[in-house]
Amino acid sequence: MFPTIATGADNDWFGARFFQGIPEPIGGNIARGTGSDAAGLFTNGAGILIKLSTAELDNARIAFDYHTTGIAPAGQYFKAGWFIGDITGFDSHRTLDLTSGPDSWANWHEGFSGPLTGTFTTEGFHLPSGQQDLWIAFWIQDAGKELVGYVDNIRAGGRPVPEPASMLLLGSGFLGVVGLRRRKV
Predict the structure, then answer these.
(1) C-alpha to C-alpha distance for 158 and 135, rounded to whole angstroms
(2) 95: pLDDT strictly greater than 70
(3) CATH number of the domain that 177 lies in?
(4) What pairing do the DSSP bridges indicate for beta strands 148-160 and 46-52?
(5) Alpha-helical segments (H) within 41-162
């Protein structure tokens, strides 16, 4: 479902600054590959975003592998979450400042918060179902330290919502069986 950065999905991934004080240009070190084992890469106070739809899914869920490096006091620095709606204001580097305004990170829903790991760890969280414009973001909370986050192997899924035509067909079949049973009685 998700294009991977490893396969060159530059047109699908976006970069974002979630906190004030991140050095410019922010597009230079966000959402880029890391050698032959490319993964999403983002630095302290910044993150990567991708848009998807859960309009035809029930019980939607996302899973991912994340890895963080750096030295900081104990805390939950790696964040993942979602925003429902349209996001505008991307610059020519496909990056966005989310430090203020209606799309600001303060209006995002946090789905996961994790510590510095040192190795890749698999995590996940539930997503809101039935949403056409759903943005997923992974970011490192600004801790005033040099922290780096990686995300890879992003998987999303859920139960498909039955189509209305399928439900109508199932319902009419059920009514037919009930009608036949009444006729026999």
Answers:
(1) 16
(2) yes
(3) 2.60.120.260
(4) unpaired
(5) none
Domain count across the chain: 1
Could you count the other beta carbons within 10 Å of the beta carbon of residue 140? Answer: 24
What domain range is 141 assigned to? 5-184
Prediction pTM value: 0.74
- How many CB atoms are located within 10 Å of the residue 124 CB? 16
pLDDT tens digit sequence for 5-39: 444 455 566 777 665 544 443 334 444 444 444 56
Please tell me the predicted confidence (pLDDT) of residue 102.
75
Lowest mean pLDDT among 50-54, 163-167, 175-179: 163-167
Q: What is the Cα–Cα distance from 113 to 126, expressed in whole angstroms?
A: 13
Using DSSP bridges, classify how beta strands 95-97 and 13-17 pair: parallel, antiparallel or unpaired.
parallel
